[in-house]
Amino acid sequence: MELVVGVDAGGTASTAVVATTGGAIVGRGRSGPGNPLTAGSGNAAAAVAAAVRSALGGHSPALVRAATLGIAGPAGAGQFTPALAALGVTGPVTVVGDVVTAFAAGTPATSGAVLIAGTGAIAAAVHADAVVRTADGLGWLLGDEGSGRWLGLQAIRVAVRDWTAPLAAQIAARARVGSADEMVYWAQALPWEQIGGLAPLVCAAARAGDPHAAVIVAEAVAHLVHTLDELGADGPVVLGGSLLACDTPVRDGVLTTLRARGRELRTGHDPAAGAAWLAARPLTTLTPPALHEALLGRP
User: Fold this and answer.
1) Cα separation, 227 vs 220, whole angstroms
2) What is the DSSP string of 114-134?
3) Closest to 257 measured CA to CA, from 298, 299, 227
């Protein structure tokens, strides 16, 4: 039995999928942050190796014929190969951008676009497993418009400007502050994890009919669609990230807008499996679409 490994190495956690070259997933694993930019090179490599070890279970690492890792930002295979080799994985290791694995998670097409909204937000045009253009992805200070962190920031701005609003009360309770001034001081400390963590609250409030939250969500949808439009890319659009791959009002709004334009839409639920598809594709006897369906199901 020949195996491949796919890894989604993020700034918060690393997930790994072990699959056969015939498209059967035989194990999954999860560990800590695997992005060298946020965790450091050594810690990231150790986290990825831990996720792969967990995913392998009782299978021999020597059976792994290839591994593909999806990582945001600059990273090279050389940062991860020694840790995986020490684990017993001897097959070649390839590192691609996480937008490439997000696209691969949604479609076997060779070209198209991916729109991701999670903590951050980015759109990318993908062709032949490479990113050819991007839009946004500029970080909270300069961009990431429509992202989870952006939603949290907008909610805080509403709270400090309209302290009597129901949404303000929910934000204040989450931040554990008792006044608009305290909210300002809390936000100035830049508690980024908590700010991004307000996104589910905003989405739930919008679903419940809160007018301020509904406006924030509508603005997020408009920003994300505009970001996608900046690419001018043809082909399928894969939606990824927690705000667009999960059941949220942001996803609802983006789907409604893009369907009205007749765009072909897919959802990338499992970027680690998308990475495994990339690793297995040169080794399998299946066609790329058949392998994709086996690993990731019907679109």
Assistant:
1) 11
2) EEEESSSEEEEEEETTEEEEE
3) 227
Whether 112-235 and 3-107+269-296 are alike in CATH topology: the answer is yes
| Sequence ranges of the domains in the chain | 3-107+269-296, 112-235
Nearest to 80 by CA among 126, 46, 29: 46
Using DSSP bridges, classify how beta strands 3-9 and 14-20 pair: parallel, antiparallel or unpaired: antiparallel
Of 121, 136, 56, which Cα lies nearest the Cα of 89?
56
Fold adopted by 3-107+269-296: Nucleotidyltransferase; domain 5 (3.30.420)
Per-residue pLDDT of the chain (299 residues), as tens digits, is 899 999 999 878 899 999 999 999 999 999 998 888 878 889 999 999 999 999 999 899 999 999 999 988 778 888 899 999 999 998 999 999 889 999 999 999 999 999 999 888 999 999 998 899 999 988 888 999 999 999 999 999 999 999 999 999 999 999 999 999 999 999 999 998 899 999 999 999 999 999 999 999 999 999 999 999 999 888 999 999 889 999 999 999 999 999 999 999 999 989 999 999 999 999 999 999 999 999 998 76
Q: Please, are residues 206 and 213 in contact by the beta-carbon 8 Å criterion?
A: yes
User: What is the three-class DSSP state of 277?
Assistant: helix
Q: Does domain 112-235 bear CATH number 3.40.50.150?
A: no
Question: Which residues, listed in sequence order, are joined to residue 240 by a DSSP beta bridge?
Answer: 116
The pTM of the full predicted model, rounded to 2 decimals, is: 0.88
